[in-house]
Structures are given as structure tokens and as C-alpha cells.
Amino acid sequence: MIIATFLIIVAVIGKIIAGFTVFGQPDLNKLAIGVGMIPRGEVGLVFVAVGATSGVLSSSLEAGIVVMVIFTTFIAPALLRVVFSSEETEEVASEVSSVVEPEPTP
């Protein structure tokens, strides 16, 4: 479980940081890009399959990678919902403030 926990933390943080490396697009929701990359577990499953057939990975590491893939696959939709709901909340707040506080006319 320690290996799986470490792999989950590295997978989540690494992909969120990778989402923030998009340059030249200031209007993009970079957090949503990073969170959207979290459930990319098929690559991990390929590594498990190759490692298992070649005997390179230990059984505990194989189990840790599979647990990481399962966890990140299930947690990503919930995190995306949180990211997009906070973005919508900010948009609604800015719309309300522009209606409540109209700009002064000259």
C-alpha cells in the first residue's frame, strides 16, 4: 500500500503540474487540463504487462501500479467536477457583480 500511495501522489501531482506547463494560452483552465490527464492509466497497465512477462517488476510493485491506475481512473471525474464547478462559480460571481455594480457613465 505504501508503493501504491506513493505512485498515486506522484501521478496526480505530476499531471497537474504538467497541465500548468501550457504556455501562450492565458485563458485556458490549466488546472482542468492537468486534472483531465490524471486517468491516463493504460500506459501504466502496459508497463505492468511488460514487466510481469519479463519478470522485471516485483509482485508488490505490479499490485501498486494496478491500484494506482484504478484509483486515478475513479478519482478524476470527481476532481473534474470540483474544478469546473469552481470555475462556473467564479464566472457567475463576475456576472453578478457586473449587474449589481454597473459601470459609471461619463
Outline the structure in words.
The chain has helices at residues 2-19, 30-36, 42-54, 59-100. Helix 1 runs parallel beside helix 4 (59-100). It is 75% helix and 0% strand. With 106 residues, it is mostly helical. The protein contains four helices and no strands. It has one domain.
Keywords summarizing the entry:
single chain, 106 residues, mainly alpha, elongated
Largest sheet: none
Proportion of residues in helical segments = over 70%
Structural class: mainly alpha
Give the tally of structural domains: 1
Instruction: State Rg.
Output: 20 Å
Uncertain segments: none
What is the first-to-last residue Cα distance? Answer: 65 Å
Tally of separate helices: 4
Principal-axes geometry comes out as elongated
Helix-strand pattern, N to C?
HHHH
Strand proportion: under 5%
Question: How many beta-strand runs?
Answer: 0
Mean pLDDT score, rounded?
Answer: 79
Summarize the structure.
This protein is mostly helical and 106 residues long. It has four helices and no strands.
Chain-wise SSE layout:
Layout: H1 2-19, H2 30-36, H3 42-54, H4 59-100
Helix pairs in contact: 1-2, 1-4, 2-4, 3-4
